[in-house]
Amino acid sequence: MHNTIEDHNRLEALKRFDESKAGVKGLVDAGITSIPSFFVHPSETLSDLKPTHHTPVQSIPVIDLSGFDSDRRGAIVDQMSRSARDFGFFQIINHGISPEILERTISAVKAFHELPAEAKAEFYGRPGGGEAGFSYSSNIDLYRSKAASWRDAISVRLGDFTEDRIPEICRGAVAEWDGEVVRLGEVLLELVGEGLGLCAGRFGDLSCLGARVMVGQYYPYCPQPDLTVGIASHADPGLLTLLLQNHIGGLQVKYGGVWLDVKPLPGAVLVNVGDLLQIMSNDEYKSVDHRVLANMNREPRVSTVVFLSPSKKEELYGPLPELISKDKPPLYRQFTFSEFIQKFLTKELDEKSLKKFFRI
Ligand code: OGA
Ligand code: NI
């Protein structure tokens, strides 16, 4: 039976937190030493936080992108294709993006989150980034999820930097990062396409780089990191995700039933397969579950992800016809990207990924 008084108190606590518009960082700045109970995750999640292996059995593949447009292309396509099929995650080095740009991107996200609470409040909580395409929030699924997570985030619709819809403190760096994302994203979509035997430009023609959303995450110090998480286990929605992280660590990827730590590799760009790419590849590539542990370090963990998705929202997506045969029937039905994203926005983040909704 539901305890209505408890439910009522929980809802009041959620509202107070939400209406403070100060996020998790606000709680830490106020000096709390124990976390509010709505951040405490169910015992199944907490028992799964403990490492099952002390020495990692595997680590996320590192792919050297140098020579991708000449002699090494075949070898790179092979390695990327194997990584996308097996791990669904890989790290890219020698991608041609300068360390200064990577540094500026992370610093800009950090700088926004470290603005005074009053300066951030006006951007707080616009669903989906609102009309302006920029928002700051903590736990977008606060009222829907079973438990909240120890992080704050900004969400930015990329492209179109002419207006001042993005706060000045991060506008220049975000625009610069978007330029790099477009350049690297094009290369990556070609390489993963080749790894499926598709003709060149197949994903580009489907406008697969057209819609880009950046999420700039801030994971402050957590006084009780064994009671909550930084981001609950989930799979990403789009085609590919490009991720940068600072040196703190805490990202984990599920592989063969165990959680692998993704140790920060300076200068690397992490890439992972999203649900839409798994669906379009008819399960050749894997969109894998990942999560971030609550940060036990005094220094914040900062990361930024960009989700690459198609901009043609009313077109039909599903397993690509080239990949379907008598032996390989389609595993998913067709759907519009609008329908797909609607499902994403209404599901709880710690529910399993989107794939299952479209499975035949
Ligand atoms: C995400 C995500 C990981 C991170 O935003 O989808 O998985 O390192 N983030 O912040
Ligand atoms: Ni993710």
Task: Briefly summarize what is shown.
With 360 residues, the protein is of the alpha+beta class. The chain is 32% helix and 19% strand.
Bound molecules: N-oxalylglycine, nickel (II) ion
CATH homologous superfamily? Answer: B-lactam Antibiotic, Isopenicillin N Synthase, Chain
Looking at the overall shape, the CATH architecture is Sandwich
Oligomeric composition of the shown chains: single chain
Average pLDDT figure = 92
Helix content: 25-40%
Spatial extent as radius of gyration: 20 Å
State the distance separating the first and last CA atoms: 36 Å
Count of individual beta strands: 14
Largest sheet: 8 strands, mixed
Structural class: alpha+beta
Strand order of the largest sheet: 1-2-10-7-12-5-4-3
What name is given to the CATH topology?
Answer: Jelly Rolls
Unreliable stretches (pLDDT < 50, length at least 5) are none
Protein model, in words:
The structure is a single chain. The strands form 3 sheets. The chain has an 8-stranded mixed beta sheet with strand order 1-2-10-7-12-5-4-3. Strands 6-11-8-9 form a 4-stranded antiparallel beta sheet, with no helix packed on it. The protein has one domain (2-358): Jelly Rolls. 41% of the residues are buried. The model has no long low-confidence stretch (mean pLDDT 92). It has 11 helices and 14 strands. By secondary structure, the protein is an alpha+beta fold. The longest helix has 27 residues, at 168-194. Helix 5 packs across helix 7. A hairpin with a 2-residue loop joins strand 8 (251-255) and strand 9. The chain binds N-oxalylglycine and nickel (II) ion. Residues 215, 217, 231, 236, 243, 245, 251, 290, 292, 303, 305 line the site of N-oxalylglycine.
